[in-house]
Design a protein that fits this description.
- This protein has one domain.
- Helices cover 25% and strands 17% of the residues.
- Strands 1-2-3 form a 3-stranded antiparallel β-sheet.
- The protein is globular.
- The relative contact order is 0.21.
Length: 89
């Protein structure tokens, strides 16, 4: 979680449309990427920065809850979703 209200929550949605594929192979692009080469390069940069900083990120195109972290695994990344509980305390 962000440490306080002034800590930004990076959003990976523009970089990630298919996490199950693009975390493993960030060079994969789709028709929505108007600049496929630029999208792949941006994806690698964003994933690398997020993993290196241990940042909590949000992404609308990932499975619920859509909040988590990335871990570098060789030349790919692993999505680690935050723990979620429906129980309110």
């Amino acid at each position: 979680m962000p440490k306080d209200r002034s800590t930004p929550l990076p959003l990976a949605s523009p970089a990630t449309l298919f996490g199950a594929v693009q975390f493993d192979t960030p060079a994969v692009t789709i028709a929505f990427d108007s600049d496929a080469k630029g999208a792949a390069a941006s994806r690698k940069r964003v994933f690398g920065d997020v993993a290196a900083n241990g940042a909590l990120i949000g992404a609308a195109h990932l499975q619920f809850p859509g909040l988590g972290h990335l871990r570098a695994v060789g030349k790919s990344w692993q999505w680690i979703p935050v723990n979620y509980s429906a129980q309110l305390n």
